[in-house]
Write a structure and sequence with these properties.
Number of helices: 6
Structural class: alpha+beta
CATH class: Alpha Beta
CATH topology: HIT family, subunit A
Strand content: 15-25%
Oligomer: single chain
CATH architecture: 2-Layer Sandwich
Helix content: 25-40%
Number of domains: 1
CATH superfamily: HIT-like
Radius of gyration: 16 Å
Number of strands: 5
Largest sheet: 5 strands, antiparallel
Strand order of the largest sheet: 1-2-3-5-4
Length: 164
């Protein structure tokens, strides 16, 4: 049997499973938007209305979360300015991922509500997942295993460097 080393997943696997957090310091997206320590919170970009966070438990290299700074769980709660800002930020980050990571395509998704798979149903966030031709190899198909070939620290440096 082959072993893949992914120590950053241990905190996710061993963490107690609780109901989704409310607004405030319990919500990791609210915390990322409010705190000044961008590196600790994996914040790679922010605007007045939105924040971009590296997914701490990515599905693929470059997996980003783009969310409003305000704790809002429904699309109809967003102002027009927030919605436009989120879309413009999404466009900008997809362009950077395409340029710097040579992505061939992207999965872009928003899970609305727990029944739809939202891990944080109270705080909207879009998933941006870069994809490459052939990235679904035998590991995912036969081994039920995803291989993430880039550390979060390296990705953080790449994106922050490009956005500076």
């Amino acid at each position: 049997m082959d072993t893949l080393w992914a120590p950053w997943r241990l905190s996710y696997i061993t963490a107690p499973k609780e109901k989704p957090p409310a607004t405030g310091p319990e919500c990791f997206l609210c915390r990322a938007a409010a705190e000044a320590d961008d590196r600790a919170n994996l914040v790679v970009h922010r605007t007045e209305l939105s924040v971009v966070v590296l997914n701490r438990f990515p599905y693929n290299n470059g997996h980003l979360l783009i969310s409003p700074r305000a704790h809002k769980g429904r699309l109809d709660e967003l102002t027009s300015d927030e919605l436009l800002d989120l879309q413009l930020v999404m466009r900008k980050l997809i362009g950077i991922l395409e340029k710097r990571m040579n992505a061939d395509g992207f999965n872009v998704g928003l899970n609305l509500g727990r029944a739809a798979g939202a891990g944080v149903p109270g705080h909207l966030h879009w998933h941006i997942v870069p994809r490459w031709n052939g990235d679904q190899n035998f590991m995912a198909v036969t081994g039920d295993t995803h291989v993430i070939s880039q550390s979060l620290e390296t990705l953080y440096e790449l994106l922050v460097g490009e956005l500076s």
